[in-house]
Amino acid sequence: MKSKFLMAAAAASALMLTGCANNAELEAQVSALSNKVESMTSDQARQDREINAAKQAASNAQRAADDAAAEAMRANQRIDNIAESYRK
């Protein structure tokens, strides 16, 4: 009975040591994944900044186009008024 217990204890110890031996590889994989997550997070933050800058540029361009269209309408009205004053 004692020898069976010693054999079981030896087998359990061997299994526990084998499990502990693989922790370094697991830690390396976790570290690599953490680095990838940090890299993706920084890439996403950069892309968010670029998207916001593009939205701001598009908004500025739209505002400038609206201003130009309004100015063109005013200019056309002035031209129409000048043309009408010559007819009278």
Rg (C-alpha, Å): 38 Å
- Shape verdict: rod-shaped
The total beta strand count reads: 0
Helix percentage range: over 70%
| First-last Cα distance | 127 Å
DSSP helix count? Answer: 2
Q: Helix and strand string, N-terminal first?
A: HH
Mean pLDDT: 86
Main β-sheet: number of strands, strand sense, barrel status?
none
Which spans have pLDDT < 50 for at least 5 consecutive residues?
A: none
SS-derived structural category: mainly alpha
Which range does the strand content fall in?
Answer: under 5%
Overall description:
The protein is mostly helical and 88 residues long. 97% of the residues lie in helices and 0% in strands. It contains 2 helices and no strands. The chain has helices at 2-21, 23-87.
